[in-house]
Amino acid sequence: MTGRLDGKVALITGGASGLGEASVRLFVEEGARVIIADLQNERGEALAAEFGEAAIYQHVDVTQESDIAGAVDLAVAHFGRLDCTFNNAGIVGAVGPIDEIPIEEYDFTVSILLRGVFLGMKHSARVMKLQGHGSILSCSSVAGLIGGLGPHVYTAAKAALIGLTRNVASELIHHGIRVNCIAPGNIATPMIAGMVTGDPDDVERIAVALDSGSPIKNRGGRARDIAHAALYLASDDAAFVSGHTLVVDAGITTGSSHTPTSIFDSHSPLVREAGQRGIPTS
Description:
With 282 residues, the chain is of the alpha/beta class. The chain has one domain (9-275): 3-Layer(aba) Sandwich (Rossmann fold). Helices cover 41% and strands 15% of the residues. It is built from eight helices and nine strands. The protein has helices at 18-29, 41-50, 65-79, 103-131, 152-172, 190-197, 203-212, 223-234, and strands at residues 9-13, 33-38, 55-59, 84-87, 134-139, 177-184, 187-188, 221-222, 245-248. The chain has a seven-stranded parallel sheet, with helices on both faces. Helix 1 crosses helix 8 (223-234) and helix 4 (103-131) packs parallel to helix 5. The longest helix has 29 residues, at 103-131. The model has no long low-confidence stretch (mean pLDDT 91).
């Protein structure tokens, strides 16, 4: 522990499991007091109990403005301030061909992945403006940067979140508030486990699979990788960073894969015009 968040108060949505839980644990380790906002009451209460006075669980449905507003108000009422909000709550949402997705599934997916983040930004800003400082983080995805990595509605919402982050950052920086987001790649989480195996608690099986398919040899993504990214952006180490999307994906968005690209296998003379090779000698 280095105390990078000593004295700070954070609100983390979706904080009872997955990326949120890992972030709660790391934030508390680094000195923060945390409001754990989630729908999973049993998990959330058990997690908060581990940290005594450093954490409080609050039942929050991110689609409900009153719930988000209440969690922000709880942070201020109980801890006296709000230094960081991590809008992390999410779902996979609607899945299927574009011509088969029911509009009700589209609306519900967007209500969590985009509307919920908007509400988190809105109510955090009203408190942070008065303080004159703060850090607002949100969880996007590499699916918001490259096509074909996620379901349609999920991808649309995650891409929109990047745009929203940039726009809100341009407004709130004048109030001393930094706004950034994180774009995870393939990470072993309950959400991914539930989608792949049908069991959200089967995270270890997903972790093993990601280890074998990662561009980094035998090293797939873990929830704590995203927690460390959130820690950086929440801390004073990122005091000059705003409007940024921090990609944490083992290089997938740069074209990296678990198999080496053949053009890097060995050197051959450079290719010139008309298929000729080598540097001209005359």
